[in-house]
């Protein structure tokens, strides 16, 4: 947070709050909007590590007899932040509930990546109004990436005055203070730091499930792809220290977790901010490889920083799985240039070649944006041809959505929405075609499945994922849940595989 904001938030004095809403005063005294401009500044300040997070004594027991409910939107980073907030709530004495009607605090952990993601959240804030009116003691909070946008904060202040708290992605550890202030105050509590470069360790976490776990390895993003809001909402790139990550993974292994996903917006930049050592993602993976946990994944990779050292380490396999999510965004070098992705089509294909040479059976998945401003038919076709050439296992595909404050949002765009939709359809047809073909190759083969539970539609069927992240449905005993088992694939569908269990509890080296 910048100095102005620090002063602004410390000015809050609950005892002299007026009970009537007086927004002119409010804006001047306690509200300082998050600033995308400030968020963009990347200083040379050192990353500060706080290893001593504790729940302040005066807040312990705050949640006794109260329930919390968190609805999460967006990526795994947000899912994991929700686990941290759940950890803080529980440490304060709150209990979780999965029914908003039973909650004393409701949080919406939001995503700003595309406009439709934001619209969903505004719709939900609207739906929650009757609950809030019925129960004035209910606290309603908005957090996550949307809270980092000034336009969103202003809109909530004006149109959704019944919201009690807005706090940003850098303020999660402040949750006890924010809740306390919301209980004491009649005004909306807004605490959004535009800019923060710290890493906070020892945050409590309540993880969803006991089979797979997420572990942050770094925060933020400095890539500033011209269409993307994330560098503004998540702050500058900062890596956790390897010893803290290794300790967390060891601890999860000891607790019986079977799979870890290392998280970062651009995990290949891991370690670039260390001033005292040369240490990258390849080095980290090489150390994690020795921990006794069956599977380790990471997401998301940026092609630009994917180095040979990492490829060499991944080729050692063991618990490092043969699946890499490698967003390409476009197959046209011209579009990639305007997107500021900092690689060309040829460089991407060369990287894929190197990866496939080292790990011939690797499964590659990707993200693609269609209808970037002024994308021509030829440029779009280059995306199709690249897709065909790489033969990705699957892809997340999106129509470009302008995000306020990003450079691309200022570009004139001559591509009509119908054309964008039609391109998305054509791309999706290709994605489905290649996925179906790749899935077909599994028929008759035996795969290792980490069993996660009963299938959604049929409790007699178990479901789990392969090392390459394919969903497999098969008949098996409930005792297999949480275990690695061998399954023979009997039938391939476009997105899932059906099979029969052939052997229980596989030993993995
Ligand atoms: N850090 C990840 C991406 C996180 S966002 C990476 O760089 O790969 C996930 C995906 O959302 C992106 O890969 C991109 O394909 C898509 N995306 C991001 N901004 C978008 C926008 N403004 N419009 C449409 N899709 C977008
Ligand atoms: Fe966004 Fe690009 Fe950073 Fe990914 S690497 S989060 S797409 S700016
Ligand atoms: Fe969305 Fe923020 Fe993740 S914008 S995709 S929740 S980093």
Automatic annotation (TrEMBL):
<protein>
    <recommendedName>
        <fullName>tRNA-2-methylthio-N(6)-dimethylallyladenosine synthase</fullName>
        <ecNumber>2.8.4.3</ecNumber>
    </recommendedName>
</protein>
<keyword id="KW-0949">S-adenosyl-L-methionine</keyword>
<dbReference type="InterPro" id="IPR038135">
    <property type="entry name" value="Methylthiotransferase_N_sf"/>
</dbReference>
<comment type="function">
    <text>Catalyzes the methylthiolation of N6-(dimethylallyl)adenosine (i(6)A), leading to the formation of 2-methylthio-N6-(dimethylallyl)adenosine (ms(2)i(6)A) at position 37 in tRNAs that read codons beginning with uridine.</text>
</comment>
<dbReference type="InterPro" id="IPR007197">
    <property type="entry name" value="rSAM"/>
</dbReference>
<comment type="subunit">
    <text>Monomer.</text>
</comment>
<keyword id="KW-0808">Transferase</keyword>
<feature type="domain" description="Radical SAM core">
    <location>
        <begin position="207"/>
        <end position="437"/>
    </location>
</feature>
<keyword id="KW-0819">tRNA processing</keyword>
<feature type="binding site">
    <location>
        <position position="221"/>
    </location>
    <ligand>
        <name>[4Fe-4S] cluster 2</name>
    </ligand>
</feature>
<dbReference type="InterPro" id="IPR023404">
    <property type="entry name" value="rSAM_horseshoe"/>
</dbReference>
<dbReference type="GO" id="GO:0035597">
    <property type="term" value="F:tRNA-2-methylthio-N(6)-dimethylallyladenosine(37) synthase activity"/>
</dbReference>
<dbReference type="InterPro" id="IPR058240">
    <property type="entry name" value="rSAM_sf"/>
</dbReference>
<dbReference type="InterPro" id="IPR006463">
    <property type="entry name" value="MiaB_methiolase"/>
</dbReference>
<feature type="binding site">
    <location>
        <position position="145"/>
    </location>
    <ligand>
        <name>[4Fe-4S] cluster 1</name>
    </ligand>
</feature>
<dbReference type="InterPro" id="IPR020612">
    <property type="entry name" value="Methylthiotransferase_CS"/>
</dbReference>
<keyword id="KW-0479">Metal-binding</keyword>
<comment type="similarity">
    <text>Belongs to the methylthiotransferase family. MiaB subfamily.</text>
</comment>
<dbReference type="InterPro" id="IPR006638">
    <property type="entry name" value="Elp3/MiaA/NifB-like_rSAM"/>
</dbReference>
<feature type="domain" description="MTTase N-terminal">
    <location>
        <begin position="66"/>
        <end position="184"/>
    </location>
</feature>
<feature type="binding site">
    <location>
        <position position="111"/>
    </location>
    <ligand>
        <name>[4Fe-4S] cluster 1</name>
    </ligand>
</feature>
<feature type="binding site">
    <location>
        <position position="225"/>
    </location>
    <ligand>
        <name>[4Fe-4S] cluster 2</name>
    </ligand>
</feature>
<keyword id="KW-0004">4Fe-4S</keyword>
<feature type="region of interest" description="Disordered">
    <location>
        <begin position="1"/>
        <end position="20"/>
    </location>
</feature>
<dbReference type="Pfam" id="PF01938">
    <property type="entry name" value="TRAM"/>
</dbReference>
<keyword id="KW-0963">Cytoplasm</keyword>
<dbReference type="Pfam" id="PF04055">
    <property type="entry name" value="Radical_SAM"/>
</dbReference>
<feature type="binding site">
    <location>
        <position position="228"/>
    </location>
    <ligand>
        <name>[4Fe-4S] cluster 2</name>
    </ligand>
</feature>
<dbReference type="InterPro" id="IPR002792">
    <property type="entry name" value="TRAM_dom"/>
</dbReference>
<dbReference type="InterPro" id="IPR013848">
    <property type="entry name" value="Methylthiotransferase_N"/>
</dbReference>
<dbReference type="InterPro" id="IPR005839">
    <property type="entry name" value="Methylthiotransferase"/>
</dbReference>
<keyword id="KW-0408">Iron</keyword>
<dbReference type="Pfam" id="PF00919">
    <property type="entry name" value="UPF0004"/>
</dbReference>
<keyword id="KW-0411">Iron-sulfur</keyword>
<feature type="binding site">
    <location>
        <position position="75"/>
    </location>
    <ligand>
        <name>[4Fe-4S] cluster 1</name>
    </ligand>
</feature>
<feature type="domain" description="TRAM">
    <location>
        <begin position="440"/>
        <end position="503"/>
    </location>
</feature>
